[in-house]
Amino acid sequence: MTSVASLHDRLDLAGLDDLLSEEERAIRDAVRELCARRIDPFVADWFERGEIDDPRGLTRELGAMGLLGMHLTGYGCAGMSAVDYGLACLELEASDSGVRSLVSVQGSLAMYAIWRWGTEEQKIEWLPRMATGEAIGCFGLTEPDHGSDPGNMRTNARRDGDDWVLNGAKMWITNGAIADVAVVWAQTDEGIRGFAVPTDTPGFSAPVIKHKMSLRASVTSELVLDNVRLPGDAVFPDVRGLKGPLSCLNEARFGIVWGSLGAARSALESAITYAEQREQFGRPIGGFQLTQQKLAEMYLEYSKGFLLAHHLGRRKDAHTLRPEQVSLGKLNNVRAALDICRTARTILGANGISLEFPVIRHMNNLESVLTYEGTVEMHTLVIGQALTGLPAFR
Q: What are the structural domains of the chain?
């Protein structure tokens, strides 16, 4: 049987570890150890049941390790690099996309929105508690009828004296039912604006979405706002239009560029181990040429995806990363990861659909990751516009 260490060594066939500093490898290894202890033994059961045991406890453990808003500075945030954050996302998603989504939504959407666009009072109120996991956030942008076209959202906020009153609904909201604060984007007479909405505000509710076949180890909710009255200082003061929410989405997409590789690596590890142990026609199937071709091609795509993620991470740390480059990474790496999982499933045969192995779980999860934070179509058109200078969205 292949030991984990030797398998990890062989998965560094391309020498990718040489691209990382000693500190970066230490952060990666620490997150990997946390996942092996706290998530991996339980996640298949969470997925099968469609719920995480004690999500608040898990969130506090992630916060204690500095993983929530880890790439932000101040207010109790760890202030780590973009590559550090990317490596953490990779390890979290090697356990499960739903767990990585919890961290991404908390740090790159809810916390980033408050950190980048909120008032000083909002930052002081929420960010330290969110960094430790004592408070959980969600991000309300997508609506039942408006996903890729958020500019036509129907959720609205109107002034009423010194207050704001919000009405509308958001859909497919990670962390919604367990959140303490919801970042909600709404139409106003001044354009689209963002609000920090305490979830105990009268009129706010977050029904859990059931019957998912993907991201089952993740809390997914609808947000309903029925005459939710907020004080005037609940609004983000200095941003209007789609600039606000899109800046947050760009942060989350960067995490997906890395995270999707974790699911791919987990599936590849399973395929290699299975191919060494499974015998047909008198020998391990890993000794057959067609199986080795599959493994080699899977590794090629994984290593190319890692090189792209690493390059984009270094650009982000140098403050030279552009949104279309994030689209490039998200489109390529999620699509490649899904293909790797599908190929791994063929190596495992019928066992590939069993939750005794992680492959079908990753494969199902990636079907959602392929779509959220920008569909294949939208990222394709972002790249197309960057190449031609011609917008093709309408």
A: 4-132 (1.10.540.10), 137-240 (2.40.110.10), 244-388 (1.20.140.10)
Torsion of CA 388, 375, 305, 275, to 10 degrees: -140
Distance CA 302, CA 281 (A): 30
Say what the pLDDT of residue 1 is.
46
User: What's the residue count for the chain?
Assistant: 394
Angle between the 97-104 and 82-95 helix axes, to the nearest 10 degrees? 140
- As a whole number of angstroms, the distance between CA 117 and CA 381 comes to 27
Amino acid in the structure at residue 87? L
pLDDT tens digit string along 3-55? Answer: 445 787 888 999 999 999 999 999 999 999 999 999 999 999 999 999 999 99
| Residue 27 neighbours by CB under 8 Å, 6+ apart | 80, 84, 87, 88
| Mean per-residue pLDDT, 297-305 | 98
Joined tokens for residue 197 = 């909405």
Which of left, alpha, beta for 31 (phi over 0: left; psi -120 to 50: alpha)? alpha
Question: 228: helix, coil or strand?
Answer: strand
Bridge pairing between strands 137-140 and 181-188: parallel
**Which pLDDT does position 5 carry in this prediction?**
52
Q: Is 143 a catalytic residue?
A: no
Query: Residue 50 gets which letter from DSSP?
Result: T
Task: Name the catalytic one among 190, 301, 373, 377.
Answer: 373
Sequence-distant (6+) residues with CB within 8 A of 45 are none
Single pTM value for the model? 0.95
